[in-house]
Fold:
Amino acid sequence: MKKAIAFLRSMKFGMLLLVLVIGCSLAGSLIVQQREPMEYVNRYGSEMAQVILFLQFDDVFSAPYFIVLMAALCLNLTLCSLVRLPRVMKAKKELEAQADHAMLQKEVSAAQANKLRAYFDKRHYRRREHAGRCVYTCNGLGYYGSFLTHLSFLLILLVGAGAVIAADVKDQTVMPGETITLSDGTRLTVDSFRIEDETGRLDYASILSVESADAGKRIQQQIRVNEPLSFGSYKIYQQTYGTAGAVRITNLVTGVSEEMALTESCFLTLDGRNGMFFNALYPGYVTAEDGSVTLVTSTSGAYSDPVYDIISVADGAMTTVLAFPEETLTIGDVSFTMLKPISYPGLRIKHMPSVILWLLYATFLLMVVGLYLCFFMVPTAIVVEDTGYTVLSPKTQTGLLIELEALLEEE
Structure:
């Protein structure tokens, strides 16, 4: 049992877990998450897509093995923290006891000893008299650096897990030019969206404008997959995308026109009887040698030659029509003009409670404090007698020794 506990709290086991967690996190950062299997095939090829899906890299942060790794890392850090604190307190007492009986390493005169005492007193070292010798100590908090660092890593994992559980996540489809209002009054506008860049390379990118409820803060930023926008307690991700049809409906009697997006099948009518039924939008078509047309049903890029599959309904008669952008279908006193399709983003909007954010900041601050204590506050004890002195520390204090020798050489 002792060997098992010793292994679970060992640094080797902790480093192994940390490497595995970092590897999984890198996979989750480089590979788009929570998409349909076909998208991985289109992006990475059939063989690589099979590997990604088998290893659950398409949703790595929810994979059972990742949860087990995180739980094991928490256990390792907990055991390290619990074991380390008694050792820290013991090491502090051992240094003080060692100082009381340490042999002098450097010989000095009485005048030089007084000079050393004045030097340490001026710098407010803690002074203790024992058996005719002065024991000066400093950086006692440095003993707790390793403990605080381990504790901060544990708290970061726990608070991070709490953040995942407490986060309010919503997937929202927003058309370019459309503005939505979030729960606290924050306004989000999609200024533009593209599927491909200027060279035709796939590049799912949205330009968003976000404004606080009181209009006191406003930012505009481009987001991509794995490059979210942060605004206050919100984080907005480029999650999915889609392409919708668009139509201009004109009442030929009144001359009134209205444009609308076609995101799903629908029947457009003014009188409830005659009108246009929108069935589907296809990204392109292929014309055979005999003149027949085969519709392209899917694409990972922009719609190069979009085709509208619609049905004209007039006086009870239904006619299937394939229409292209800028073509107009007139039914009675209404005209339907097909427009260029609209590409739109699917955004994932994550809202984090403020208290969780502050706890995360606090844990990162604790980690910085722990690292500072580890590297910049090395516990040190200096024993000074009339005939000599010695420096004791868990680490080599070359700098301090050189400084003291330079001080004693001054006239």
